[in-house]
Design a protein that fits this description.
Largest sheet of chain A: 9 strands, mixed
Oligomer: homodimer
CATH topology of the largest domain in chain A: Aminopeptidase
Number of domains of chain A: 2
Shape of chain A: globular
Distance between the termini of chain A: 21 Å
Radius of gyration of chain A: 23 Å
Order of helices and strands of chain A: HHEEEHEHHHEHEEHEEHHEEHEHEH
CATH architecture of the largest domain in chain A: 3-Layer(aba) Sandwich
Number of helices of chain A: 13
Number of strands of chain A: 13
Chain lengths: ~425, ~425
């Protein structure tokens, strides 16, 4: 079935058309999109997804954190079993069109092909239901932390805490979801397997000229929200020695986090992407600063050491600036290994179909990482041009999209069917072609 | 006349009551006020001022940059001559009640006392008109630069450029003024002398236990708006060496500006009060940062050297971060000396009334500095508790307010009258009492 070129041609056109539609929702002048979680733009994208579900006989469920599920009855297989595919529709501010939306669209169109193949007797499904999941607030741009919808779904974050999270304006996620009418009540069946297609957000696939990455693990991360307290005062007459300049202290922290990553003996990334300053007026010394700092590594020890060094710097910065430095919250994300059985099956089916692939790790967080805590999960990457993401310049070519979709179809056909190779073991992390 | 205790008692009560009314407009929970230039709160304060003018027979003029003038006809003196007193009603975000508003209120009530004294024949005015000036956008918090209204008034800033200035949301000053109905058309007579009472915003008067400061000069300043350009990218997968992190580069600049002030051989202050970061999302590397940097000194050479050192740091920061650093605008404020004849007259009249005073310099900018470029200007300071300003903790006691007001009355009585001591010269900068 999956080598049926005319059929795939139709599916490819459907896929690219549908993806193009989502790229228009929340489009901004830069060429990117701004579709922040639970914003009006996110609401429009969700409405389009639900319309599509209705047109293609998916049952729609919306849960209490606003995750949307489109449930497709394959009419065969175990009625207690659900195979999930999905990703997210929210974006960074002025972000790219591909991050998240591509995975949702692939999941949608994949469902149509799978249902058709089941009807034709080309797949004998173990799972009776194919479920497209669209997770709330993956990006963590408007509401922190990231992966908020999938974290609540798998029970790693309490619902009430998640709904109470506030954006920069003090709007709660609960209120924002209710404003766009996506605060649901549905009880959602447990996933038996989860598969997600996502852009790589790195340049390894492009450099190797390989269309698909099978992700075996995710780096760990340490995310720290710092609060720096100084004293508001006039930037003019206040003697330098009397100042408690919270922006100066925060700047030292930004530099410090960067230096720690450069001096680590392991590969360790660090960044500060967001800073909120009060009162943020040119003539007033800042008295309050919040900083969102993160360290990432595939070496858990290196993360611990980075945090230790970072905290060790506080006293000196506090002393030299007269400010108070406080860790307001801190989140540990452990290194996660994806389901080995799923990896082995995908390796096997891609090899048999002569689709080249690369084994990869992911540094960015994805909903699939959260799902791995409750069911076997599989994450597939497609190339990102120049590795750029969270930017209007984010780009994946149509050819790479359709090649990724074809690999996904092979993977889902295998994993959803009753003939999955239970005895397969993942290979070493090498390119196969 | 001015030793008439019952009269002053009435004036003091009027003064404190009126000041208290302005302290309620734009009051915020912290105990401070947020009355940003041309905001609805500023509009309410302006309306209250105009109501007060109407109740006390001041003619109201609003010019093209929204400066408000209340013109009081003293019925005697040269009808071509105008004596101006004033300050501003806009505040910093979550700023203090005293900064600006105190000077406007003192100017208002002083006018009533002066008019009464002229009517009684106690003052023989050279100036027929007493004008209370309320300057637009002194603070530079919402619209930069600071001193915008007085700068346009004296011809140091073109009207069209000032009106086109935009706030953080992209709202122009023109639009904001028209929204609160203070975009006027009045042609305003030229001031013959300007006098302003302001809080010190430093602790010298409090420490010396002296109620009044006569300001002889203002420090120079160098104000630099920097733009840092990096590249938006995912904070996770982007390799450290490929990042162009504009917030990291900006943090180096903040630290650098501070170090320059500490290493200067002259007294040199520096600060960065405001930073705007885009997209300011925890998971995206910042691609655009704007920084408002200032250096202040009473040594013009030290300012030049500071700027030189600051610019010298750009190459290294650009190289280490991959970012582009650009000076978007740069403003030089020269050291300004206030009118010596006015200072000598105020010294003389305060000495004769046994009011102790201190000679001072101001580091903060004030509208009086702008006015000095078109007419003799006099700036008087009253104490600030602990020297704190631009903060809800800003405070001047009622006793200090009324003592400052009495000193102002003496000064204005002398300067407005036909008997000003033309041959007086300012003394050396010492306390007299």
């Amino acid at each position: 079935m999956l080598d049926d070129a005319p059929f795939n041609h139709t599916a490819h056109a459907t896929l690219l058309d549908l993806f193009s539609e989502f790229g228009k929702i929340g489009a901004v002048q830069s060429g990117g999109i701004s579709r922040l979680a639970a914003s009006p733009e996110d609401g429009l994208a969700r409405d389009s997804l639900c319309d599509w579900f209705r047109h293609h006989d998916f049952e729609i469920l919306v849960d209490e954190i606003g995750n949307i599920f489109g449930v497709l009855d394959l009419a065969l297989g175990d009625p207690t079993q659900h195979f999930f595919c999905g990703s997210h529709l929210d974006s960074q501010p002025d972000g790219g069109k591909f991050d998240g939306a591509l995975g949702v669209v692939c999941a949608c169109v994949c469902g149509l092909v799978i249902k058709d193949a089941v009807a034709k007797g080309e797949i004998d499904p173990f799972y009776r239901y194919y479920v497209v999941a669209c997770w709330t607030g993956e990006e963590g741009a408007r509401f922190q932390p990231s992966l908020i919808g999938s974290s609540v779904f798998v029970g790693l974050m309490p619902l009430e805490i998640a709904l109470a999270r506030q954006d920069h304006e003090g709007v709660s996620l609960r209120h924002a979801l209710s404003q766009i009418d996506y605060l649901g009540t549905a009880q959602v069946p447990a996933p038996g397997h989860y598969l997600e297609v996502h852009i790589e957000q790195g340049a390894k696939l492009e450099t190797a000229n390989i269309p698909i990455g099978i992700v075996s693990s995710c780096w760990g991360a340490k995310k720290i929200l710092m609060e720096v307290s100084g004293r508001p005062d006039h930037t003019g007459p206040t003697p330098m020695e009397d100042r408690q300049d919270a922006l100066l202290a925060a700047s030292h922290l930004v530099v410090q986090a960067n230096e720690i990553s450069h001096h680590s003996t392991s590969t360790l990334y660090s960044s500060v992407g967001r800073i909120d300053v009060s009162p943020n007026s040119p003539n007033t010394i800042a008295d309050k600063v919040q900083l969102w700092i993160e360290f990432r590594s595939n070496d858990g020890e290196a993360l611990l050491e980075a945090e230790h060094q970072f905290r060790h710097s506080f006293d000196g910065i506090a002393k030299s600036t007269g400010c108070e430095l406080r860790v307001a919250s801190s989140e540990d994300r452990a290194v996660v290994e994806f389901d080995k059985h799923g990896i082995a099956n995908v390796e096997d089916v891609l090899s048999k179909s002569n689709i080249p692939y690369l084994h990869m790790t992911t540094i960015a967080g994805h909903d699939a990482i959260r799902l791995q805590s409750v069911c076997p999960s599989t994450l597939l990457f497609v190339p990102s041009r120049n590795g750029i993401s969270h930017s209007p310049d984010e780009f994946t070519s149509d050819d790479d999209i359709t090649a990724g979709f074809d690999a996904m179809l092979h993977a889902v056909s295998r994993l959803i069917s009753a003939v999955a190779c239970d005895d397969l073991q993942p290979s070493s992390c090498e390119t196969k072609n």
